[in-house]
Amino acid sequence: MSKEFEVVVIGSGPAGYHAAIRAAQLGFKTACIEKWLNKDDKTVYGGTCLNVGCIPSKALLDTSHKYVEAQHDFETHGIKVGKVGIDVPAMIQRKDNVVKQLTGGVAGLFTANKVEGISGTGKVIAKDKVLVTGHDGKQEELLTKYIIIAAGSVPIDIPPAPVDQDTIVDSTGALEFQAVPKRLGVIGAGVIGLELGSVWSRLGAEVVILEALDEFLPMVDRQIAKEASKILTAQGLEIKLGARVTGSKVGKGAKKSVTVEYTDKNGEQKATFDKLIVAVGRKPYTVDLLDPAVGIEQDERGFIKVNDYCETSVPNVYAVGDLVRGPMLAHKGMEEGIMVAERLAEQKAQVNYALVPSVIYTHPEIAWVGKNEEQLKEEGVDYNVGVFPFVASGRALAANDAEGMVKLIADARTDRILGCHIIGPSAADLLQQAAIAMEFSGSAEDLGITMFSHPTLSEALHEAALAANGHAIHIGNRRRKK
Ligand code: FAD
Ligand code: NAD
Prior knowledge:
Helix content: 25-40%
CATH class of the largest domain: Alpha Beta
Number of strands: 22
Bound molecules: flavin-adenine dinucleotide, nicotinamide-adenine-dinucleotide
């Protein structure tokens, strides 16, 4: 038996559900296949992002941040609270409730937009045919004009630390601890390592992060990365760089621990933890997804090969999100999903890959868009830099949240904004203002002549833009201009 559609999307993560909803809005008869089952064995939409990624991690980051504030910061504000405690199962339950609300929201959006949600595993068996295998094993063929593959990614595992989701966990397991581990090891000082390491450190765990590279956050502007290292270390994260994990042994008994062996510049080392999080990156998920006879090409790392418009090597078959090149970020996949749907409707949509914002949701947040100083130096571009520290921001001081800085980089010749790099309170939201200016080819002067409400954290961006041209008001200027 087969059903007919115009667009079939495989996967309902941020890339897939955006593609499906936009395609349906544009009048295509659209289906979205999803295989994810939640803890109650119910199909849930939203993929990694809503179920075990962006949203649950931010729920725990927000709870743990409030805990730190209640423990340490309220007193500075003159607020007296009794002894502060943390109920971990209640925290996890709240996180699950947020996830439930949002995944249910996607189901509602599918209904409202007439996207047919189909439960099961999809496989591309021809350029116009997808085979769906239901959880009961029943199979059904979907005939379609266009296929959009959005099957996402899964954590990378490493042989020296095999994940058992009990003592050694990946990011999914690290969202489910029912008690604060006394000693927590993390392999990988990337985005997940820092975010989830922060969650459990704030709640009282001694956290040691083992990072193979010698450099901390190599993708981040050096000045910002240095500041981040200083602040996060002061918060209690012990970050060991140049630490290569060679093996691990899980102890026996009810209260298991794990001993990790690693080498660093001083030779062979050992450390014992109650829990170990492996966060060494993610890989595209294409298991049993593509019939090789269809000819959809993949690169040597398993990513589906696409061009700038997310077209695969097979006409009318598209791929979006984590399983194609580029950063593995929810918003990048969302934009790709929308672009593909709009191009199917013959609209001239495109994604501006030069302006994908990145955020690490530690506190303070670390956020960046565009080029950093190191990249511009390498490209030989002449630039001006404006830096404004939050300690000079009235609003940040009023909130007792004044660590970090805004750094704006503009082309020395044209003044066009080339990059913005922030570590500080609400960095993610502040960065977006620079991203908008950059999307419209704005200059540092454009931001400088824009009126910003006072007192806001955004004024730090305003002042950084003024500083790029040597006329910041609330700090001394490195460059002097009339
Ligand atoms: P996914 O979200 O992985 O969705 C793919 C979907 O396809 C899944 O639901 C899967 O079940 C389904 N699927 C796979 N194969 C099949 C098949 N054959 N048939 C049917 N269905 C299938 N990104 C951010 O931008 N900001 C953040 O703050 C952030 N935080 C994160 C925190 C953590 C802990 C993690 C792990 C990731 C985080 N990310 C974040 C990354 C973000 O989650 C991913 O970039 C994003 O979810 C990718 O979207 P996607 O639609 O490509 O794939
Ligand atoms: P990552 O690539 O950010 O960091 C992985 C880190 O592990 C790197 O620093 C790498 O050098 C290190 N590493 C790799 N192998 C190692 C080994 N054997 N021993 C020690 N260190 C090792 O990956 P991640 O933190 O796992 O996150 C996966 C993806 O999810 C990322 O692409 C990220 O973009 C996305 N994500 C995004 C957010 C966000 O946007 N805030 C949050 C979480 C995850």
